[in-house]
């Protein structure tokens, strides 16, 4: 008898379950409320079918059978009613969440719907809040980058027009024979060569900066000593320092390793030193130091520029920024790209770069993880 009851109930339940799954598949694109209602109907129908089958065929007869069927029918209706109420609440909560998303303003400030939500929808609302926060941050970065691009175009356009206009005037003077004495002709040729070198350096900086912004900077890290890195950087700018009358000093322990791309990190350090020399007055000093602790190495470049206004400090590494209120640029000024390139190279090494006012000028500092075996 027990086996027969189990067989009949399982058979009817299987048939109803297959029918229910078929209906759910057909309604898979419909509202979650409809799907919950189908699930409730399938559950109640399977229970009712089993009870009715057993009642009609095997166990109960007469008035008790009518009572059982009535109770089961009422229980089924109650179950379906509760399922419909729950489905309606879930649908209402879902619509509140959809409305909150549709009402997100152009500023991407997402306001989660008020009132209680089911746990899953509350999790979705929290995830949406975080996603919109990331979108806001991305938009702010994009706007800042776009502003930097515009500023860069303005700066570079100015810096390109000035030397090109001078070279055109000198070339026209040479072509027209306005200048024919040997000394002036030689001076014009030297000036044209210097301007061409400057423009080539500017184009090289623009190419490097575009690689950094595009994420195309490819590093070839290896274990290098900071002493050699500092020595190479100082040797490369020694002529500029002598011409400016600035003293260069390097203070680096002989063995202080770092895992980095020597060429790119050397360029970043050289940009900082060149920047320091350009803004240090004659007879001033530029000091390059290297220090380390257990996990970090630091390269610092201290100058005698007279300091940077506090309001300008956060913008020092922006593209094309020139703190002319604190640093009056001379004829050898760059295009304002050196510090932005240095920051990009340092960040590509998973390091950090900062600047503070200190003593007679300011101090730029590069922080990098200490050398370890390659991963």
Automatic annotation (TrEMBL):
Keywords: Kinase, Membrane, Phosphoprotein, Transferase, Transmembrane, Transmembrane helix, Two-component regulatory system. One of its GO terms (cellular component) is plasma membrane. Gene3D superfamilies: 1.10.287.130, Histidine kinase-like ATPase, C-terminal domain (3.30.565.10). SMART domains: HATPase_c, HisKA. Residues 155-372 form the Histidine kinase domain. GO terms for molecular function: phosphorelay sensor kinase activity. The chain crosses the membrane at residues 6-27, 34-55, 67-87. The keyword Transmembrane helix applies. InterPro entries: HATPase_C_sf (IPR036890), HATPase_dom (IPR003594), His_kinase_dom (IPR005467), HisK_dim/P_dom (IPR003661), HisK_dim/P_sf (IPR036097), Sensor_HK_Regulatory (IPR050736), Sig_transdc_His_kin-like_C (IPR004358). It catalyses: ATP + protein L-histidine = ADP + protein N-phospho-L-histidine. It is found in: Cell membrane. Its EC number is 2.7.13.3. PANTHER family: HISTIDINE KINASE 1, TWO-COMPONENT HISTIDINE KINASE. This is histidine kinase. It comes from Sphaerisporangium rubeum. The lineage of its organism: Bacteria, Bacillati, Actinomycetota, Actinomycetes, Streptosporangiales.
């Amino acid at each position: 008898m027990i086996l027969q009851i189990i067989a009949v109930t399982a058979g009817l339940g299987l048939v109803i379950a297959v029918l229910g799954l078929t209906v759910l598949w057909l309604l898979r694109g419909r509202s979650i409320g409809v799907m919950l209602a189908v699930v409730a109907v399938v559950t109640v129908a399977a229970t009712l079918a089993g009870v009715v089958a057993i009642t009609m065929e095997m166990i109960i007869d007469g008035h008790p059978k009518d009572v059982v069927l009535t109770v089961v029918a009422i229980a089924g209706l109650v179950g379906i009613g509760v399922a419909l109420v729950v489905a309606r609440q879930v649908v209402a909560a879902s619509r509140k969440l959809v409305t909150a998303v549709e009402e997100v303003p152009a500023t991407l400030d997402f306001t989660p719907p008020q009132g209680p939500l089911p746990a899953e929808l509350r999790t979705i609302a929290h995830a949406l809040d975080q996603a919109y926060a990331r979108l806001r941050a991305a938009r702010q970065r994009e706007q800042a980058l776009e502003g930097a691009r515009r500023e860069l175009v303005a700066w570079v356009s100015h810096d390109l027009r000035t030397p090109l206009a001078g070279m055109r005037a000198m070339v026209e003077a040479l072509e027209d024979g306005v200048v024919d004495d040997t000394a002036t002709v030689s001076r014009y040729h030297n000036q044209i060569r210097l301007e061409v070198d400057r423009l080539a350096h500017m184009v090289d900086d623009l190419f490097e900066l575009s690689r950094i912004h595009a994420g195309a900077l490819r590093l070839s890290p290896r274990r290098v000593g900071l002493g050699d890195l500092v020595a190479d950087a100082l040797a490369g700018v020694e002529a500029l320092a002598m011409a400016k009358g600035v003293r260069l000093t390097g203070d680096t322990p002989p063995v202080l390793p770092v895992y980095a791309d020597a060429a790119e990190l050397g360029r970043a350090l050289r940009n900082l030193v060149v920047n320091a020399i350009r803004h240090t007055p004659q007879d001033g000093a530029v000091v390059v130091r290297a220090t380390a602790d257990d996990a970090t190495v630091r390269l610092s470049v201290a100058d005698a520029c007279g300091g940077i206004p506090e309001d300008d400090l956060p913008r020092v590494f922006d593209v094309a920024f020139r703190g002319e209120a604190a640093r009056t640029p001379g004829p050898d000024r760059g295009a304002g790209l050196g510090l932005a390139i240095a920051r990009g190279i340092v960040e590509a090494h998973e390091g950090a770069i900062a600047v503070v006012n200190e003593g007679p000028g300011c101090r730029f500092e590069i922080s990098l993880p200490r050398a370890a075996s390659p991963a």
